[in-house]
Amino acid sequence: MPHVIYRTLQQPSTFRMRLRLAQRGELTMKDRGGWLAFAEWALALALLSLAVIGAASIGVFLLPFALLALALAARRNRAWPEAPTGGMTGVGSICLFVAYTHRAYTPCPTGPIRIRAETGYHGPFSCGGFDPTPWLAVGLLLTAAGCVGYLISRRTRVAGLAA
């Protein structure tokens, strides 16, 4: 409720106009924007990117859910600016997830691997995997760009409505 009051004080003409349109039944779900629309687009495109990354394994099973989430987000929310900024945030979050799962990366030595068996030590030896640094850098960049881009677009939209 405080959000509605704050919004009424900030944008009285826009709020009243949307209220009148909603009462007449002319406001559709497609006109919905805001943080909820941003989050729905981010989730839908995160599912799609996870399905693409894991296409050889679990991605095939995730693809129907990703397509359903995309269809629901497209039906319920407006596309600009929530879709591109939410998409960047969703894909960036999947990149951060991949970086997190590969955080125990250990590069293999360049030469041949020689394991010296010492008495009393029977631990495993492992090396390899994916380097998480590129995934982390891309994930941070996409997530930050999506969130900052959405905040800027909201600020310019509010300033444009007030003028």
Q: Care to describe what's here?
A:
The chain is mainly alpha-helical and 163 residues long. The protein has one domain (32-108, 123-162). Helix content is 67%, strand content 0%. It has six helices and no strands. The chain has helices spanning 2-10, 12-24, 35-53, 59-76, 82-101, 132-162. The protein is elongated, with a radius of gyration of 23 Å. The two termini are 26 Å apart.
Can you tell me the residue ranges where pLDDT is under 50 for at least 5 consecutive residues?
A: 1-9
Give the beta-strand count: 0
Number of domains: 1
Shape: elongated
> Largest beta sheet, briefly?
none
Report Rg.
Answer: 23 Å
The string of secondary-structure elements, in order, is: HHHHHH
Average pLDDT, all residues: 77
| Class of secondary structure makeup | mainly alpha
Ends distance: 26 Å
Question: How many DSSP H or I helices?
Answer: 6
- Oligomeric status of the shown chains? single chain
Percent range for β-strand residues: under 5%
Helical fraction:
55-70%
